[in-house]
Amino acid sequence: MIAATCFWFGMQYWAMLVGYSLEGRARFDLLDLPWRVTAPALAVLFPVASLGLWLAVPWGAVLWTMAAIIQILMYVVWPEIFGENHLVPLLNVLVASLYVVFRLALWLEGRRKEEKVRIDSP
């Protein structure tokens, strides 16, 4: 689910940069400098993070965390530059919470399996 969300975010940024969405008003050549820096970075980070999360490799979570932090900074710390958008930081926090819950559940399940396998108990 989280990998699909990352892929969706990445495709949104690509659609914006090539002029497919927002009626072409957010093409790369029409963006201000802050958007020219962040939008391409996020357009690359999100799909690559999606692949990493799908393959369950550690760098996927690291790249997703970097992209989420960039988005949160954009809309919470610098809303005068990037505009106000309360939904994107909220979605990032929700997805991060979901990811932590899943990782904790997997860790607890692995721990429970280790206890069942032990035969050296008295």
From TrEMBL:
Keywords: Membrane, Transmembrane, Transmembrane helix. It comes from the Bacteria. The lineage of its organism: Bacteria, Pseudomonadati, Pseudomonadota, Alphaproteobacteria, Hyphomicrobiales. This is Uncharacterized protein. It holds the Pfam family DUF6163. The chain crosses the membrane at residues 37-56, 61-78, 90-108. The keyword Transmembrane applies.
